Amino acid sequence: MQKQVWTINKLITWAIEFFKRKNISNPRLSAELLLSYVLGFTRMELYLHYNMVPEEKQLKRYRELILKRLENVPIQYLTKEAFFRKLKLFVDERVLIPRPETELLVDEALEKLKILSLKKKIIKILEVGIGSGAVSLSIITEMKKICPEVSVEVMATEISAAAIEVADRNAKQILGEEYPAILKIFNCNILPENNSDHGDEFSSEFDMVIANPPYIKKADFENLPEEVKEHEPREALVAGSAGTEVYSAILERIHDYMNREQSFIIFETDPLVCSDLKKISENRYKNALIEVKNDYNDLARVLIISL
Question: What is d(CA 258, CA 182) in angstroms, rounded to the nearest whole number?
Fold first, then answer.
């Protein structure tokens, strides 16, 4: 019997049908991204070389990744990479996978930074919960092009030491020798304590605080997709019974660190908790302008407090 010849085209077709039968989400995307990763190709290059026959070791690796995908392991964890805005990031199970919705958080931050740049040439930003570094690194790299005359200094905190290892790797890769001069990362919850080794580094006021904190209610965790609740870090997803606990803690802790002349607090949020977050924000900052921005699906996604 003649041995089956597995061209790129046949592999993709077979993998798509296989994933469909196993009810794996995004079967075509899964098949293409995993094969792209194995071969070192872009998705476009797969189809430019659709008659190519991969080597046996590449076929073996592709089969291994397909079996892992059947266990609902996210594609990004299998390939160890995620794309966010203009960045390619290293990711693994220590951090959340950056979501397309979070790009709106960066969009809104950049708009407010443009406003700040009209009066300031040095802008100080605090990101609470840096995770993979997607948000801070996007802001730093994009502000260089939007407002090259402005210096952006980011201080980022992260409660997970494991997540900091991922953010550190991405910062070194993307910022090179500028890291850690323009991005400093601290292992703490929201802000270092005043008497800690790093407390004095947070003595100046922030022009912007940005965060995409946990906001899933405990009761809603089991309703998340299998690949999220089984593989992504639970502590980066679940806030508590109300879903607003971490927001409240952040607002309480940063209150005395905001620039009183002009500053912004920008949160990613969720339609299920946004109205409660808005009330909490209004109670904390009674004279502030508070806006809610919807995402591309017309769902509440970003809350902005303008001080």
Answer: 19
Does residue 84 form part of some domain?
Answer: no
* CA pair distance 47, 43, nearest whole angstrom: 7
> Which residues partner with 136 through β-bridges?
none
* DSSP conformation class of 208: E
Q: For residue 226, what is the domain's CATH number?
A: 3.40.50.150
Q: What is the pLDDT of residues 243-266, one digit of tens each?
A: 899 999 999 999 888 988 899 999
What are 161's two structure tokens? 């030491």
Instruction: Compute the distance between CA of residue 26 and CA of residue 253 in angstroms, rounded to an integer.
Output: 41
The Cα–Cα gap between 59 and 284 comes to: 58
DSSP at 180: T
- Least confident span in 26-35, 147-156, 200-209: 200-209
CA-to-CA distance for 175 and 173, rounded, in angstroms? Answer: 6
Residue the block writes with tokens 């061209």: 7
- Which residue, among 292, 276, 284, 293, has the nearest Cα to 258 in the 3D structure? 284
Paired tokens of 60: 């073996």
Q: If we measure between CA atoms, which residue out of 184, 179, 105, 116 comes closest to residue 147?
A: 116
- Cα distances from 133 to residues 11, 128, 207, 278, in angstroms, run 34, 11, 19, 26
Residue 80: inside a domain, yes or no? no
CA distance 283 to 300: 20
Q: For residue 90, what are the β-bridge partners?
A: 81
Range of the domain at 29: 8-71
pLDDT class of 195 with cuts at 50, 70, 90: very low
Report pTM: 0.88
